Amino acid sequence: MTTTTTDRILNFSAGPATLPEPVLRQAQSDLWNIANSGIGICEHSHRGPVFDNVLKEAVADCRAVGTIPDDFEILFLQGGATLQFAMLAMNFLGEGEVANYLNTGVWTTKSIKEAKKIGNVNIAFEGSACNFDHCPADDEIHLVDDASYLHYCTNNTIYGTRFVNVPSSNAPIICDMSSDIFSRAIDWSKFDMVYAGAQKNLGPSGTVLVIIRKSMLEKCPDTLPVTLNYSAIAAKGSRLNTPPTFGIYLMGQVFKWILEEGGLQEIEARNEHKADIIYHALDSNSDFYTTFARDCCRSRMNISFKTKAPEFDALFLEESATQGMSGLKGHRDLGGLRASVYNAFPVEGCERFAEFLKTFAAAH
Amino acid sequence: MTTTTTDRILNFSAGPATLPEPVLRQAQSDLWNIANSGIGICEHSHRGPVFDNVLKEAVADCRAVGTIPDDFEILFLQGGATLQFAMLAMNFLGEGEVANYLNTGVWTTKSIKEAKKIGNVNIAFEGSACNFDHCPADDEIHLVDDASYLHYCTNNTIYGTRFVNVPSSNAPIICDMSSDIFSRAIDWSKFDMVYAGAQKNLGPSGTVLVIIRKSMLEKCPDTLPVTLNYSAIAAKGSRLNTPPTFGIYLMGQVFKWILEEGGLQEIEARNEHKADIIYHALDSNSDFYTTFARDCCRSRMNISFKTKAPEFDALFLEESATQGMSGLKGHRDLGGLRASVYNAFPVEGCERFAEFLKTFAAAH
Q: What is the secondary structure of B92-161 as a DSSP string?
């Protein structure tokens, strides 16, 4: 365990979440004056040469990070994943059509609620029956034929579960990757649209990354408001109207950081290692800690667990705070504790946390 | 004219636009570690105590800046004014209803196009007939009775025109104030909803301020997607889902800056003075410069003009750039030149610019 002098603490927040420190240092400088232009990043015209370059690099670096094929558009939108819940249905769930949804947690429940305002939904897996403690295998999923798409969420932030594999589907797959995008490689042959709110693995809240197969864009109805039409936004390269320039800039810096760190291969290995450190500490003290997710689908991003009694959960929060650890309270829907360790969360922080887990269990 | 040593230049961009330098200095610090929390502003949970405070102060300071009565909600949204064009119609233009629109430029043309996707629009003033060179007086406006609302835009960024007074209307008034909000006092007795993209007078792009009379919220249909329903967003105090935390933070800092500068009374007087400096330089050289807007409704935020010949416009851009002046090219729809001098643009910058206007005219 290295000790460094810093005024920053370990931030286990589920999102908005910790960002890479070199990115923050660069952003501090660029807020005042970016690229020696004499103007800060928030103050540049979204149609001027400095932001032209920021956007061009963000798209290119995103493509490089995700090894995204050329037949996918990379778009920067707004409104969070929650607006996407409605927008994807407005674009791809036509009258008389039906879409398959896998319900694996609070967020997919919301996505279903929004889609039902637009069209017909088949809930092909209902996880509430098992308290959302796992993501389904193919034989638990009951798809309807001729669906417009299958919608699911790769990683469930609250319950700490994830899909290890992509479910089978004959229909296009639209996937909410808000909490694990670019934490591991993506097999693009299996997806038609992927979206993610930025505030976990990518950047600041308020920007949404949408990666969409170009052929999907032909389906977007002209009758939609322009800002809710993927095709209209793609036609203008994310600059249909003024985009969230700082959010795109900061995401672009995070993409550069991922590439400098060695790309997704290195990041994925690191994430596996980080999660293993923490799960190992929990499993080694299984008389004291219980993890929420079934072993089959433990998340590497969000580790939801509890101690042997609620009073120890409360004490855990108190004592961890004195050790410079923040954001460990579980989501209000699940209670208990949760450690979120996205891409930018350091290995050393996981080691310190594992140490704390052991010490705390031993002491109580 | 004072000379200061700085690496920053004069930024006349129409938006995103120049921000107050003390705000940028504070943001540089808070990006790394805000309120001595050990966590940067972009990394804090939107439901944690630090952001609780940021949001609470932003709302309170906004209310103080605008002298906004308690029967108005203050909301922070996303998607720019362009999403508002659709959203306000989705909320307030029901089936079989009609709304009055004043068309005074490119942005209101877009607002009309979006509203027509939702319902019936009466164009109560069509400014294209006079090339959008002014905002109409009441006797030029032909309202239909029993309209759901009247929509207009207080300040037209491209043409450099503004409404000096609020038009008469029996229906609720919904107003796009993107380019002049908080540049002058607002008579809240006359408005039912005001909205503004942040990137001109308020903060970074990607955040929209909506100030809405509470009684309007009763009209929002439950059938709308939650993120497009003002009532649903108001019920959750702008935290229905993860809000754009950095944008809200930065707007909050701008509100504090306005209050420290003396509030809207001082800002309004300063804006009048700033615009006068530039218009005086243009009018004193009227053989060389022509302003676009009719005298009756010259904008104090955006001054659109041209020199006596296009080749001098081009030369003007070149020479002003060598003097550390940026963003003076007119909008592509109008051509010529434009100086945008929002709240944060310094008086001294207007003086330097007026000097340049005189010198350039004399030299050519």
A: H--TT-EEEEEE-SHHHHHHHHHHHTTSEEEEEEEGGGGTT-SPPPGGG--PPTT-S-EEEESEETTTTE
